[in-house]
C-alpha cells in the first residue's frame, strides 16, 4: 500500500481526475467550470498537467492555487443573520483536479485504512447498517422483561458539534471517542449489550454527532461512561447537551434504578427512544402511525409548490426528484404499509394534475404514469415495487449462498446439480436429472484442466441438449479466477436497485401495473418525442395528446356530461384531440402555412400517434421538432380563445412556434463548442510503443464468432497478427471481449512491455481501462484481460472508429 501511495503522480491520473468531474460545477476564482477544461483539454492539457504535477510531485504550490470564493446559501426563506446562511467554498478547477487525483489514489485503500466501525462513506458500507443495529438493540431492550441482567441505552446530543471546532480536529476527536469505548469494552468496564447468546456485544454506535451507548444498567458501568464523557469533553471542548440527551432502560429494570441512574447522569428519562438517524428506533403496533411524519413532510413540500406557477413538466421533475425521494431512506430499511404508499402516490397525483381550480381531473391512472417513457408513461416510481427493490439491496448483502446465482471461475466450489450457475432465468439450475447418480460433482469436473475450456465429451454424456447449449455459451477464464456470486439481472453482475425495481414491476406487479404498447413503431415515436430539442412542457403536452389526456370537448363531456363545450374555432361538438390538432379548419390553415406538413393533411389518420408516426418517417429531425412546437402553440392559442383572452392567427402560430423553438435551441444547445472530429484513420504509436488493434465479429449470421488481432510499431510495420474462429453462438460483445483478450495475451507472449490496445467497442474499453470488477457472464474474460495487463510495464487503451482499423475488416 505504501509503495502505491508514494509513487509519483502521472499525466494519466491528472486526465482521469478531470474526466471524473461534473462538467457544470460552480466555478471558483478562476471563473471557469470543469466543462471548459474538458472541451478544450487538447489545448490546455500540457500547461494544466505541468501545473498539477509540480504541486503533487514537487510540492510547489503556486500563488492563488488554493484560493476559494465563499458563497452563502440561505437555510431559511428570509435570513436575517449570518447564522441563517450555510457557507460553501468554490475552488479553482486546477485545485479540484489535484485533490481529485489524490482522492482517486486513496480510493482503493479506504476499506483497509478506515475503521470497521465507520458504517458509511465507504463502498460497501451503508448508514442503514447503524439503523438496523440500533433497531434490533432497542427492540431487545423493549422486550427484555425477564432475567437478572438489566441494560440501558444512552442517546447523546453534542451541542453544535460542527460549529465549535475545526473539521480535522473533530474527526480525530470522534475517532478517539470511539477508541475510548472500544478500550472500555475490552476491559469489561462498559461490556456492551448482546441481543442473544453468541451475538457480539454492542457498546456504542457513532455516526457523525449522533451517538448511542448500550451497556448494563449498573452503578459501576454508568461511572465508567461518565469518565469517558468527561475525558472527551476535556480533550475536545465539546459539550454534551444534557437537555436534549435521554436515557432508556430494558423492561426488567426496576423504576427506582432507572430514576437513580438517570439522576446520576443528569439526563432525561424516557420510556423509549423514538428515533435514530431520522428513522424509528423500534416498531409499534401501527406502522402507519410510525411513518405518518413522512406523509406530513411530503404534504408540506407539495403545499409550498402549489403557490408557484409550474408547468406539468416542472411538476414531473419535482415529483421524481423530491416527492419520491423523501421516503427512500425509510423504504431502504423498512417495508412501509401499502396504504401509506398509496397515500404518498395520491398526494403526488393530485399535485401533478392540479390546474388551479378544485376539480382536479386525473386524466391518466397513476399505474400508467409509472410506465417508462418508451412505453407511454412518465417514468414515475411505483413506490411499492421500489420499496421491495430497496429492501432487496439489503437482502443481497446478507443473501444465503444457495439462493445466489454463481459465476464460474475455477468451478471447484460450485455443485453441478444443486447450485444455480446457469445464466438462464428463472431457476438458474441444471434441468437434466441426475440419472447416473453422480454425487458431489463440481463444475470444475466439466472443465478441461489443460485447455481451460469446457469438456464437451463429458457434458454431452451427462446433460440434455438444452443444458449443453447453455453451458457452452458461458465463457471461461484462462487464469482461473474465483467463483463469485452474481446478480443476473444487471449488465455487470452486481446488484442494483434499478434492476431489482424493474424485475419487481415485471413479476409481482405485472397484473396491476399499467399496460404498455411495446410495438417498435410506437417505441420509436416515444423515443423521438422525449429526445426532441423542444421545451419539456411541449414534450409533456405531446405525451398527453397521444394518451388522450387533454380537456377537449369530447373528453370533458365524458367527465362532466352536463357541460356544453364545443370547439372554439369551428363550434364542432365532437372536438377530439386529432380534430383540435389536425382536422379542424383552423388547424388545417396553420399546417398549410408550415411549409412542410401541408402535403400530409389528406393522409387518412385517425389518431395523433398514427399521424406523428407518419410524419416522423417523412420529416427531418428539425422539422419534426418544429411540428411538435406548432402542436403546442396551436393548443395554447385554442385555450386562449376558450378563456376569451384572444388568440393567435394561423401565421402568428407558425411564426411564434419557430421563433420560440429557435431561441430554445440556441439557449440550450448552441452555446457549447461543436464536438471535435475524431480521427477515422489509423495513427502510429510513439517511440517504442506497440499498438495492437483488435476486432470481433459474428460469422454466418451469428452461428460462430471470429476475431482478428494486428500489432504494429511506430513505423507502421506489422509485427504479428492472428485470427481465430470460435464455433459457438454469442453476442457481438463476446466476440469483442475475446478479441481484446487475444490482443493482450499476444503482448504477454511476445514480452512487449509498452503497448496500446485499440478497438472500436467503447463500452468494453471503458470497463478494461477502469480495471473494474465485472460479474456479468463476460466477467471471467475481463478478469483475464486485467490480469494479463498487470504483467506488462505500461498498457493504455484507445478507441478508434471502424474505418481506423480497415485492415482488420478487409480480407487478408
UniProtKB/TrEMBL annotation:
CDD domains found in the cross-reference section: RNase_H_like, RT_nLTR_like
Pfam families cross-referenced by the UniProt entry: RVT_1, RVT_3, zf-RVT
Gene3D superfamilies given in the database record: Ribonuclease H-like superfamily/Ribonuclease H (3.30.420.10)
Organism from which the protein derives: Sesamum calycinum
SUPFAM superfamilies given in the database record: DNA/RNA polymerases, Ribonuclease H-like
PANTHER family in the cross-refs: REVERSE TRANSCRIPTASE DOMAIN-CONTAINING PROTEIN, REVERSE TRANSCRIPTASE ZINC-BINDING DOMAIN-CONTAINING PROTEIN-RELATED-RELATED
Domain Reverse transcriptase: 82-178
GO molecular function terms listed in the Swiss-Prot or TrEMBL record: nucleic acid binding; RNA-DNA hybrid ribonuclease activity
The name this protein goes by in its record: Ribonuclease H protein
Domain RNase H type-1, chain residue ranges per copy: 693-803
Domain Reverse transcriptase zinc-binding residue range list: 495-591
Amino acid at each position: 500500500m505504501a509503495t502505491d501511495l508514494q509513487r509519483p503522480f502521472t499525466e494519466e491520473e491528472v486526465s482521469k481526475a478531470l474526466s471524473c468531474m461534473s462538467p457544470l460545477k460552480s466555478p471558483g476564482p478562476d471563473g471557469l467550470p470543469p466543462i471548459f477544461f474538458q472541451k478544450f483539454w487538447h489545448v490546455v492539457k500540457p500547461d494544466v498537467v505541468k501545473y498539477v504535477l509540480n504541486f503533487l510531485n514537487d510540492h510547489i504550490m503556486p500563488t492563488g492555487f488554493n484560493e476559494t470564493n465563499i458563497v452563502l446559501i440561505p437555510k431559511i426563506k428570509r435570513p436575517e443573520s449570518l447564522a441563517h446562511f450555510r457557507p460553501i467554498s468554490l475552488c479553482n478547477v486546477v485545485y479540484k483536479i489535484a485533490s481529485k487525483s489524490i482522492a482517486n489514489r486513496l480510493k482503493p485503500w479506504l476499506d483497509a485504512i478506515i475503521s470497521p466501525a465507520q458504517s458509511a462513506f465507504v463502498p460497501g458500507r451503508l448508514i442503514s447498517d447503524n439503523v438496523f443495529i440500533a433497531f434490533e438493540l432497542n427492540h431487545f431492550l423493549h422486550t427484555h422483561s425477564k432475567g437478572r441482567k438489566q441494560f440501558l441505552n444512552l442517546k447523546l446530543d453534542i451541542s453544535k458539534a460542527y460549529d465549535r471546532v475545526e473539521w480535522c480536529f473533530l474527526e480525530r476527536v470522534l475517532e478517539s471517542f470511539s477508541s475510548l469505548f472500544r478500550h472500555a469494552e475490552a476491559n469489561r468496564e462498559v461490556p456492551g449489550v448482546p441481543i442473544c447468546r453468541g451475538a457480539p456485544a454492542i457498546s456504542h454506535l457513532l455516526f457523525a454527532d449522533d451517538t448511542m451507548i448500550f451497556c448494563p444498567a449498573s452503578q459501576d458501568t454508568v461511572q465508567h461512561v461518565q469518565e469517558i464523557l468527561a475525558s472527551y469533553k476535556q480533550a475536545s471542548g465539546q459539550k454534551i447537551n444534557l437537555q436534549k440527551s435521554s436515557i432508556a432502560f430494558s423492561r426488567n429494570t426496576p423504576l427506582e434504578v432507572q430514576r437513580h441512574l438517570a439522576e446520576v447522569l443528569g439526563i432525561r428519562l424516557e420510556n423509549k427512544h423514538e428515533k435514530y438517524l431520522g428513522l424509528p428506533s423500534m416498531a409499534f403496533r401501527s406502522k402507519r402511525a410510525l411513518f405518518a411524519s413522512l406523509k406530513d413532510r411530503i404534504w408540506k413540500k407539495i403545499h409550498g409548490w402549489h403557490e408557484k406557477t409550474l408547468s406539468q413538466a416542472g411538476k414531473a421533475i419535482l415529483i421524481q426528484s423530491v416527492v419520491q425521494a423523501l421516503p427512500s431512506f425509510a423504504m431502504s430499511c423498512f417495508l412501509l404499509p401499502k396504504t401509506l404508499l398509496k397515500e404518498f402516490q395520491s398526494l403526488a397525483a393530485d399535485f401533478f394534475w392540479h390546474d388551479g381550480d378544485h376539480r382536479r381531473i386525473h386524466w391518466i391512472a397513476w399505474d400508467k404514469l409509472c410506465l417508462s417513457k418508451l412505453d407511454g408513461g412518465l417514468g414515475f416510481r411505483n413506490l411499492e415495487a421500489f420499496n421491495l427493490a430497496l429492501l432487496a439491496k439489503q437482502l443481497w448483502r446478507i443473501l444465503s449462498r444457495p439462493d445466489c446465482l454463481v459465476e464460474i471461475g475455477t468451478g471447484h466450489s460450485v455443485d453441478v446439480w444443486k447450485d444455480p450457475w446457469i445464466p438462464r432465468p428463472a431457476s438458474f439450475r441444471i434441468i437434466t436429472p441426475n440419472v447416473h447418480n453422480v454425487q458431489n460433482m463440481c463444475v470444475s469436473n466439466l472443465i478441461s484442466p489443460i485447455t481451460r475450456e469446457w469438456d464437451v465429451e463429458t457434458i454431452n454424456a451427462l446433460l440434455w441438449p438444452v443444458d449443453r447449449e447453455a453451458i457452452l455459451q458461458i465463457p471461461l477464464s484462462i487464469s482461473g479466477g474465483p467463483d463469485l456470486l452474481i446478480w443476473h439481472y444487471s449488465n455487470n453482475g452486481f446488484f442494483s436497485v434499478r434492476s431489482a425495481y424493474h424485475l419487481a414491476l415485471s413479476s409481482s406487479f405485472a397484473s396491476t401495473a399499467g399496460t404498455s404498447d411495446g410495438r417498435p413503431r410506437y417505441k420509436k415515436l416515444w423515443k423521438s418525442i422525449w429526445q426532441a430539442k423542444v421545451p419539456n412542457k411541449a414534450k409533456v403536452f405531446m405525451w398527453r395528446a397521444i394518451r388522450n389526456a387533454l380537456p377537449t370537448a369530447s373528453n370533458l363531456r365524458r367527465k362532466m356530461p352536463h357541460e356544453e363545450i364545443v370547439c372554439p374555432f369551428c363550434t364542432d361538438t365532437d372536438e377530439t384531440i386529432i380534430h383540435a390538432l389536425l382536422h379542424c379548419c383552423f388547424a388545417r390553415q396553420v399546417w398549410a402555412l408550415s411549409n412542410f406538413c401541408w402535403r400530409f393533411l389528406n393522409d387518412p389518420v385517425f389518431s395523433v400517434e398514427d399521424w406523428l408516426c407518419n410524419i416522423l418517417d417523412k420529416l427531418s429531425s428539425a422539422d419534426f421538432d418544429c411540428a411538435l412546437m406548432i402542436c403546442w402553440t396551436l393548443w395554447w392559442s385554442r385555450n386562449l380563445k376558450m378563456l376569451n383572452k384572444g388568440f393567435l392567427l394561423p401565421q402568428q402560430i407558425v411564426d411564434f412556434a419557430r421563433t420560440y423553438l429557435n431561441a430554445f435551441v440556441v439557449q440550450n444547445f448552441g452555446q457549447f463548442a461543436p464536438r471535435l472530429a475524431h480521427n477515422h484513420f489509423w495513427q502510429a504509436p510513439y517511440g517504442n510503443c506497440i499498438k495492437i488493434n483488435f476486432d470481433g465479429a459474428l460469422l454466418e449470421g451469428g452461428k460462430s464468432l471470429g476475431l482478428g488481432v494486428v500489432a504494429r510499431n511506430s513505423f507502421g510495420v506489422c509485427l504479428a497478427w492472428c485470427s481465430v474462429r470460435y464455433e459457438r453462438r454469442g453476442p457481438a460483445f463476446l466476440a469483442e471481449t475475446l478479441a481484446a483478450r487475444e490482443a493482450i495475451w499476444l503482448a504477454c507472449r511476445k514480452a512487449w512491455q509498452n503497448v496500446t490496445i485499440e478497438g472500436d467497442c467503447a463500452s468494453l474499453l471503458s470497463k478494461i481501462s477502469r480495471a473494474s470488477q465485472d460479474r456479468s457472464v463476460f466477467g471471467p474474460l475481463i478478469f483475464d484481460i486485467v490480469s494479463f495487463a498487470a504483467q506488462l510495464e505500461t498498457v493504455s487503451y484507445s478507441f478508434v472508429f471502424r474505418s481506423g482499423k480497415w485492415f482488420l475488416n478487409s480480407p487478408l
